[in-house]
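Morning. Coffee machine broken again, so started the prediction first thing and wrote up yesterday's gels while waiting. Chain of 183 residues, entered below exactly as on the submission form.
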Amino acid sequence: MKISHLAALTLTVVPVVALGQAPIAQAQLFVSSPIQAITPNSETLYLNTDATVEKTLQVGAATNLNGRSIPAGAIVRGRFEPAEGGVRYVATAVEVGNQVYAVNAISDLLRDIKDPRQTNTGAILTDAGIGAAGGAAVGGILTGRVSVGSILGGAAAGAIIGNTTAQRVVVVEPNQTLTLTSQ
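Came back before lunch.
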């Protein structure tokens, strides 16, 4: 038996992805112009400078990467990573509709500060109160009586120690804009 014609073989490559995830495009998009990304959180984030935190952002203003239109609202995948003096956001992908494009972009350094939750007036007053109680107790034990001086000294020491030992964090406000550039 002779084969009179050959059948054409077509090979289609379909990305394999987990349920609920968009397929990943083959090309990596070069971040030729900065991406203005917005933190879509509704509450302030307090990031420790020694931990990596996965977080998605949103593109704030439409941009064009490698000829691909990236609309405002597109999802930016990435994470906040520790860096000397704070953290940086490292973007790994941009999701547009049902397509995910790999990118390699990074934010400027987000500097750490003393944790404002531990240095606000309420926290300082609490530390002062604890210090005052400690000063009164020590004064009572050492001298047999509690003096105003031991209470005030303890309050001052508590306030100073509480403010000095406050942890350092990076504060990311709701809808804060981060500029991502090519890494």
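The first helix runs from residue 116 to 119. Going to sketch it on the whiteboard this afternoon.
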